[in-house]
Amino acid sequence: MDIRSLDMKTVKTAYIVVAALLAVCAIAAAYLHHTYIALGFIVLASAAILAGSLLVTYMLKNRKVKDID
């Protein structure tokens, strides 16, 4: 699968859902008093948001270049 063939809305939804699931896991771990595991889930959720936003930026850049050509 080529990254340029992905739908922008699908990609945004996917990385937001992944980050939300990780945040729910962090809440559950914090509720069970596993603070370091909760912190790890929070870091993973932040990394998922960062990676997803970088992917969307890359896709927008490629689409812009494709439209110019």
Description:
The chain has 69 residues and is an all-alpha fold. The chain has one domain (9-68). The protein is built from two helices and no strands. It has helices at residues 8-31, 35-68. Helix 1 runs antiparallel to helix 2. The model has no long low-confidence stretch (mean pLDDT 91).
What is the 3D form?
Answer: elongated
> Mind telling me the C-alpha Rg?
16 Å
- Share of residues in strands: under 5%
Q: Please outline the major beta sheet.
A: none
- How many individual domains? 1
Number of helices: 2
Uncertain ranges: none
What's the end-to-end separation, in Å? 22 Å
Average pLDDT for all residues: 91
Task: Give the assembly state of these chains.
Answer: single chain
Summing up helix and strand content along with how strands pair, one would put the structural category as mainly alpha
- Percent of residues in helices: over 70%
In N-to-C order, the SSE pattern is: HH
How many runs of DSSP E, i.e. beta strands? Answer: 0
Observed structural traits:
69 residues; mainly alpha; elongated
In short, what is this structure?
With 69 residues, this protein is mainly alpha-helical. Helix content is 84%, strand content 0%.
